[in-house]
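Suppose a colleague, Dr. K., hands you the sequence of a protein chain of 142 amino acids and asks what its three-dimensional shape might be. Before reaching for any lab equipment, you can write down a predicted structure in token form. Begin with the sequence itself:
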Amino acid sequence: MVDITDKDAIRREAVAQGQIRLKVATISAIKGGRVSKGNALEVAKVAGIMAVKRTPEVIPACHPIPITSIGLDFELGTDFVAAKCTVTSVSKTGVEMEALTGVCVALLTVWDMVKEMEKDDSGQYPTAAIENVRVIRKVKGS
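The predicted structure, expressed as tokens, is then:
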């Protein structure tokens, strides 16, 4: 881990986003509440929030820091679900990894919730793909 002992605790914010490409029929099922496992976006939101809080447990060099706010939003397109995670903290280090982890776990959860609809006859996933995961904004200080 990087030594952050002498750094000041200040407000930090990071926003990450990404998307999962899915079949048009799968998006329709999500919109219509026809996913057999339940509400895919609500489950993904809870999973993403939980993941943000547990980031230091799964990424070895991340410091455990106090998370002061987590926002996780989704946008449904014709053939994709986009996720955006905003994380804030007052701490000595940034929250980019937490925001990225929230997005990734949310998108993985969407995949898990809809995978039965995405499989082809041989059990493969020809359409489903997690794409464009990245930090879109980082704020340090007020």
